[in-house]
């Protein structure tokens, strides 16, 4: 008699919020008071090993409950599946989730539902990597290329990247992979920091944190811009004076401008040698990015953290609309869709410098960049992962930065699991922190308004 297969028995969801707005951490021209939050999911099973799958998507406060509800709406696709099935082929669940015709109507493949799908899919990959006894980057880098190609949905992108081309890229990436793995474990992956550059910080804090970043080995920092041009000129002057000419300085407008304003503003900041201008306009406007890129060169154009899916990334690449592609681990449909985007970037020869920060985004996206280095692009030249120094202590396997580099994770999984005590304390509105917080009722009123 064959043993009863182990199954996913529950999809637990949590609305977790941190009060980052009170110190202006995360503040930028479009988001002046973010409370960094995670719509968090835990896949529980009846397996004897007790291993769970953890995933989440990132929001900035109000609306996190909407994102949690979207994850909850996917439960019927997940519970009852065998653990072996989903870990052996996460793509099978990914295809079912994006194929739900009624929920798909709310996208399709974009917005709240797609982010919810990404959270669930990432939780499956976390569980698969734990069961394999490997960190996710290594599970992906050592996987059979044909199997990886089978994880990708080529619908809508095969005019730019065919399965055969993807397989060729991955097979080529196997050459020298063991040596790159060894270098990665020894040196880590290059990082840049945004911790100095939040828009709400005064000059003293900007100066102190920029100097600290250089002392800690970072070779690139980033400043938020876009609210006031004269203020941006002053802040860029201060930062450049602190870091000197040999450190790259990127600037980020967080979608603040139209085309003409983006061109004018970026040219005004050009004397301070910005390496890239990030999100200069709407993330959906492919042709606007192309026009801005042509007009502001040699300043590079970077975008991607709000690009909704592989299809928009495909068009950005086809139109020559960006110099730097910024994947986000938690906005598109999880690992499966990010595999497609990494391979598209490799096909077009565009470097990937992920968006991170937030709640746990550094923990997640490091795995995708390390996989890209070992098994896809084979290089870290002009490639860096964003780093923001907050909220890492809430994770069981937090990122470790050494001399301006991400240290390669060695713990099995996707580094997604939060500490149970952090979940209990920061679950909104009833967790220990929020229950005792005098501003909680005002926050709830604002959410209900």
Automatic annotation (TrEMBL):
MF terms (GO), sorted A to Z: L-fuconate dehydratase activity; magnesium ion binding
Signal peptide: none
Cofactor(s) recorded in Swiss-Prot or TrEMBL: Mg(2+)
Database matches in Pfam families: MR_MLE_C, MR_MLE_N
The keyword NAD is assigned to this record: no
Key words, A-Z: Lyase, Magnesium, Metal-binding
InterPro entries: Enolase-like_C_sf (IPR036849), Enolase-like_N (IPR029017), Enolase_C-like (IPR029065), L-fuconate_dehydratase (IPR034610), Mandelate_racemase_C (IPR013342), Mandelate_racemase_N_dom (IPR013341), RHMD-like (IPR046945)
Domain Mandelate racemase/muconate lactonizing enzyme C-terminal: 203-299
Enzyme Commission number(s): 4.2.1.68
Biological process annotations from GO: carbohydrate catabolic process
Catalytic EC class: lyase
Gene3D superfamilies (alphabetical): Enolase-like C-terminal domain (3.20.20.120), Enolase-like, N-terminal domain (3.30.390.10)
Catalytic activity: L-fuconate = 2-dehydro-3-deoxy-L-fuconate + H2O
Protein name according to UniProt: L-fuconate dehydratase
Organism: Streptomyces spiralis
Lineage per the UniProt record: Bacteria, Bacillati, Actinomycetota, Actinomycetes, Kitasatosporales
């Amino acid at each position: 008699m064959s043993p009863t297969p182990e199954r996913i028995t529950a999809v637990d969801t949590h609305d977790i919020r941190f009060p980052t707005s009170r110190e202006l951490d995360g503040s930028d021209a479009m988001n002046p008071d973010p409370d960094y939050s995670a719509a968090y999911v835990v896949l529980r099973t009846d397996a004897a090993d007790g291993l769970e799958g953890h995933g989440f998507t990132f929001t900035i406060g109000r609306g996190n409950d909407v994102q949690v509800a979207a994850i909850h709406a996917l439960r019927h696709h997940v519970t009852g599946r065998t653990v072996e099935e989903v870990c052996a082929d996460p793509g099978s669940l990914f295809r079912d989730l994006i194929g739900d015709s009624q929920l798909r109507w709310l996208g399709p493949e974009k917005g709240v539902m797609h982010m919810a799908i990404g959270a669930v899919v990432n939780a499956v990959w976390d569980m698969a990597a734990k069961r394999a006894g490997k960190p996710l980057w290594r599970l992906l880098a050592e996987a059979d290329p044909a199997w990886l190609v089978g994880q990708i949905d080529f619908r809508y992108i095969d005019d730019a990247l065919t399965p055969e081309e993807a397989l060729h890229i991955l097979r080529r990436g196997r050459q020298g992979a063991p040596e790159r793995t060894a270098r990665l474990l020894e040196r880590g992956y290059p990082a840049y920091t945004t911790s100095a550059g939040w828009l709400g910080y005064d000059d003293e804090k900007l100066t102190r944190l920029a100097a600290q970043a250089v002392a800690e080995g970072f070779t690139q920092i980033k400043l938020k811009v876009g609210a006031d041009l004269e203020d941006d000129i002053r802040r860029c002057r201060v930062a450049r004076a602190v870091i000197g000419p040999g450190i790259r300085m990127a600037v980020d407008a967080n979608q603040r401008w139209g085309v003409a304003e983006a061109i004018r503003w970026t040219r005004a900041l050009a004397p301070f040698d910005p390496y890239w201008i990030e999100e200069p306009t709407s993330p959906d406007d492919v042709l606007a990015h192309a026009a801005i890129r042509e007009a502001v060169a040699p300043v590079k154009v970077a975008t991607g953290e709000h690009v909704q899916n592989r299809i928009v990334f495909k068009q950005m690449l086809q139109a020559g609309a960006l110099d730097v592609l910024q994947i986000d681990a938690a906005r598109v449909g999880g690992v499966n869709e990010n595999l497609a985007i990494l391979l598209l970037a490799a096909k077009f020869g565009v470097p990937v410098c992920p968006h991170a920060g937030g709640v746990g985004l550094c923990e997640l996206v490091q795995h995708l960049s390390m996989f890209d280095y070992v098994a896809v692009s084979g290089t870290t030249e002009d490639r860096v992962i964003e780093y923001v120094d907050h909220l890492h202590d809430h994770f069981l396997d937090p990122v470790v930065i050494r001399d301006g580099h991400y240290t390669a994770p060695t713990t099995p999984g996707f580094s997604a699991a939060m500490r149970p005590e952090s979940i209990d304390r920061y679950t909104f509105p009833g967790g220990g922190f929020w229950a005792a917080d005098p501003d909680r009722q005002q926050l709830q009123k604002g959410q209900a308004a």
